[in-house]
Structure formats: structure tokens, C-alpha cells
Amino acid sequence: MINYPLVTHLLALQDSNKIQQHFSAEKRPTLWRALPAIEELQTAWEAKRDNPRFRKYRTAINDGLAKLKKYYSRFDEKPAYILALGEL
Fold this sequence. Notes:
The protein is mainly α. The protein is 66% helix and 0% strand.
């Protein structure tokens, strides 16, 4: 029998896990993936926030979106990200 609340819970978490995998590399730098990953996660969470299926997670999703916005705005203040995009 399918446990639908558990499936919904796992679907709510899958976006974070997927994005975390963008930063799991042993031999290559991953900073250049940061902005696209944050934007992808933001888009996914905004869709879930507006989906009635994820209504019980809305507060947590909104908190997560606020945290993403906080860190996303920090890219404007730090030149490391721009340096990560350059060629050697």
C-alpha cells in the first residue's frame, strides 16, 4: 500500500537533495554552479509553495525561499563567484 503522506514529504525534500548533488564533486570546482542551482531550487520551491498538495509545507518552503534570497543577494557582494566563472 502506498503511503501518500510519506510520498508527499519525500517530494517536498527531493529538490534540496538534487541541488546538493550539484556541489558534490571530488576533482572539479563547483562554485560556478551556485547561481543556476539556487535559481533551480527557487523555481521548484515556488511551484511547490503554490501547489495545494504541499500546503502543509508552505511555511517551511517560505522560510527556505527567504534563506535562498538572503544568500543569492550575497553573490552581488562577493567577487569569488565572478572569479570562478573566469578562465585561467
